[in-house]
């Protein structure tokens, strides 16, 4: 069984105190665990900005791409796998 802690990364978020990204990050980890996905089965694709550092803070595969290119890159990754 997959636990939320399985997605814990040693990298600590640098978001500002009270930032909504913390809630999104925690909800994402809970959803992935509830879906029964192991960290090696997950690919997080992000763009530019504070929230885009999410792959750094989550123990899973991650790829940061250029502004506006997140969906095409994620689609390519999905098609390749």
Structural commentary:
There is one protein chain. This protein has one domain. The protein is 36% helix and 10% strand. It is built from three helices and two strands. The protein has a two-stranded parallel ribbon with strand order 1-2. Helix 2 (54-57) links the parallel strand 1 (43-46) and strand 2 (61-64). The mean pLDDT is 95.
Mass-distribution shape: flat
Strands side by side in the biggest sheet: 1-2
Largest sheet: number of strands, sense, barrel closure: 2 strands, parallel
What is the total tally of β strands?
A: 2
**Arithmetic mean of pLDDT:** 95
- Helical fraction: 25-40%
Structural class by sheet pairing and helices: alpha+beta
State which percent range the strand residues make up. Answer: 5-15%
Query: Over all CA atoms, what is the radius of gyration?
Result: 13 Å
Low-confidence stretches: none
Summarize the structure.
By secondary structure, the protein is α+β, with helices and mostly antiparallel strands.
Q: What's the SSE blueprint?
A:
Elements: H1 21-34, E1 43-46, H2 54-57, E2 61-64, H3 70-80
Parallel strand pairs: 1-2
What descriptive keywords fit this protein?
81 residues; alpha+beta; flat; 10% strand
């Amino acid at each position: 069984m997959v636990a939320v802690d399985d997605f814990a990364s040693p990298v600590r978020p640098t978001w500002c105190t009270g930032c909504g990204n913390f809630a999104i990050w925690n909800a994402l980890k809970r959803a992935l665990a509830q879906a029964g996905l192991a960290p090696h089965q997950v690919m997080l694709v992000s763009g530019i900005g504070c929230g885009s550092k999410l792959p750094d803070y989550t123990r899973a595969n991650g790829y940061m791409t250029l502004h506006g290119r997140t969906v095409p890159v994620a689609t390519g990754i999905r098609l390749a796998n």
